[in-house]
Amino acid sequence: MDTDQQIQILVDQAPQYGVTAAEVEKIAPILKALAQQLQHPQYYIPQTSEQGWLMTTLTHRTQPELSKNVVYAFPNLKAVSASPHVPKDPQVIALPMPATHILFQMLAIKPLDSIVFFETSDNLQSGTEISRKNLQDSIHQLVETQRSPFGLPSDIA
Hints:
By secondary structure, this protein is an alpha+beta fold. It has helices at residues 3-13, 21-37, 77-82, 99-108, 132-146; strands spanning 42-47, 55-59, 67-73, 93-98, 114-117, 128-131. It has one domain (3-148).
């Protein structure tokens, strides 16, 4: 499924997420641009049996007071099984999810700081990190550029 199809599904399902289709369409260019920087159209997200994403808290090596919560996204099930980041627990399952949907969901998960997308099964030490703050900042910039000057509605006559 390509990114346009993924976005259309998000638009169609917007009410299930508590937002309007127009709101999803407004942020779609950002979701699409970030997803296209990744190597896979979908990733596997380790989850608990209650479908909560498995979050890992990372602590800075030299400044232990600095930490962040991340979710790991894997290119395939083989990578999930081989990962030292996923506990060998029968209650943890990994389900595939379109890349744009992962990014969209990240906006709703308040304690989540970043998602690390692993691109190959061979290298589970290095991935592409997309932070929630960068995603939010990009969306904010997009919304600001779409606003009419002087705070007037764009359809004023």
